[in-house]
Design brief:
The protein has 13 helices and 19 strands. The protein has about 400 residues and is an alpha/beta fold. A hairpin with a 6-residue loop joins strand 18 and strand 19. It is globular, with a radius of gyration of 25 Å. The chain binds cytidine-5'-triphosphate. Cytidine-5'-triphosphate binds next to helix 11 and strand 16.
């Protein structure tokens, strides 16, 4: 990631909430100032019960603040801080802070600053598992998410008082990475490229309560969309997976949630019209059913639905594409992997095929890692060794970038 330069520092308000993890905000302030950000620490009154303002004043770019009414430098510190900020990050975000933000309250300097700002707001919650799981807390998070607040964590792990569970603050390095990504606005080799990605397993109804699907989790497709956004591309993701997007790219990816192959096909065809590249990482059902209008009953015996071959979305994209567009397919194979994949590449006239050997249980489906082979016409196969799905995504997108440059697209 690139960093804000010292010549034009980015202004970041680091808000500190009243939780035991407040001491970790000190580390975040240090990382952000090291990266050249101008950091203004703002503590809630409760935060001062856990950590001293002096430490934040010493490590921040200006003295820490906590008072709404008795600031010596400006009579209206919240509008000054809020308007100047390029980003605001709150570490830790307590359950009480989530509730105040969801309500739009401005009852201390931090919440008033957040309301007085148009900057992206990044929240890193931390609390005990019992608090985290409360429906009221979860409702507040959903409310804030839909308003565009960016969440980092929490994680599962050790908590205060010897407890363990969901609610641990994310590592300050990870929080800083999200802050810097948001500040950078994602400039990279794919800046100016428009990429549409599909992900996940479609679901085809048998009757109003049952459906057929497959084991694809959508993780690899989501990773491709997220990494493409970090590389600067304008990304649309059509997903049949319930996965959430990573916090740092959530506000930059155009997300369309679908369920069936038909819905996915419609969304992909529409979005591909204004894209340079389509990447079909989804596991699309090859067959759908003439679904029964009413629930199938056991007493009527084994169901025998009419199977209907679904439209091949990637084939449709290839037939619609102009000479300036690329289409990338995926192939999940269990046997004769490369032979089958090579035939698929040619039959579907794809620019690139990403091949998965799904018989290998150390990779694929629901895991965090993958290993693939890249096939394109006239090129020898390229084996990408086992790595995280983000690492595989980077390799796939680097090849896409090369193909775009090679064809001068
Ligand atoms: N695909 C698609 N529409 C379908 C089925 C598959 O767009 N109805 C896409 C997948 O997203 C993938 C590629 O086609 O990018 C290959 O999918 P795969 O299931 O491996 O290929 P099939 O042609 O269905 O071949 P088979 O299932 O017989 O291996």
């Amino acid at each position: 990631m690139t960093s804000p330069t010292e010549a034009s520092p980015k202004h970041v308000v680091v808000g500190v909430g009243g939780g035991i993890a407040a001491y970790k905000a000190i580390e975040l302030v240090r990382i952000l100032t090291d990266r050249g950000c101008f950091v203004s620490p703002v503590l809630t009154p409760a935060a001062k019960e856990f950590v001293g303002e002096l430490t934040f004043s010493a490590l921040g770019s200006e003295p820490a603040r906590s008072e709404l009414f008795s600031d010596q430098t400006t009579p209206i510190p919240h509008t000054f801080l809020g308007q100047r900020a390029d980003a605001i990050v709150v570490v830790p975000t307590t359950a009480h802070l989530l509730a105040r933000l969801a309500m739009g309250l401005a009852d201390d300097l931090l919440t008033a600053t957040i309301l007085a700002s148009r900057a992206p707001i990044i929240l890193a919650p931390a609390m005990h598992t019992e608090m985290w799981e409360q429906p009221s807390v979860q409702r507040n998070i959903e409310t804030l998410r839909t308003r565009g607040y960016i969440f980092v964590g929490p994680e599962d792990g050790a908590l205060a008082g010897g407890d363990s569970g969901m609610g641990r603050l994310s590592d300050p390095i990870e929080i800083a990475r999200v802050v810097v990504s948001v500040l950078d606005g994602f400039e990279g080799p794919l800046t100016g490229r428009r990429i549409v990605v599909s992900a996940g397993a479609t679901k085809e109804a048998l009757d109003p309560v049952r459906y057929m699907t497959n084991r694809s989790s959508g993780r690899q497709g989501h990773a491709i969309a997220e990494v493409a956004a970090r590389m600067g591309a304008t990304v649309a993701l059509v997903t049949a997976s319930p996965l959430e997007l990573a916090p740092d790219v959530r506000s930059s990816i155009q997300l369309t949630r679908v369920s069936t192959a038909e819905e996915m096909g419609e969304a992909m065809s529409r979005l591909f019209k204004s894209a340079d590249v389509a990447i079909m990482a989804a596991a699309v059902a090859d067959f759908t059913f003439d679904a029964a209008a009413n629930k199938l009953k056991k007493r009527d015996g084994a169901p025998d639905p009419t199977w209907i071959e679904s439209k091949d979305i990637v084939a449709q994209l290839v037939s619609d594409k102009t000479e300036n567009q690329l289409v990338v397919g995926f192939a999940a194979e269990t046997h004769d992997v490369l032979t089958n994949a090579q035939a698929k590449l040619e039959a579907k006239s794809l620019d690139l095929l990403v091949v998965n050997d799904v018989s290998d249980e150390t990779i694929g489906f629901d895991g965090t890692h993958n290993a693939v082979t890249l096939l394109s016409l006239g090129e020898p196969p390229t084996t990408i060794a086992r790595g995280t799905k983000d690492a595989i995504a980077l390799e796939v997108l680097t090849r896409v970038d090369l193909l775009l440059l090679k064809e001068k697209k």
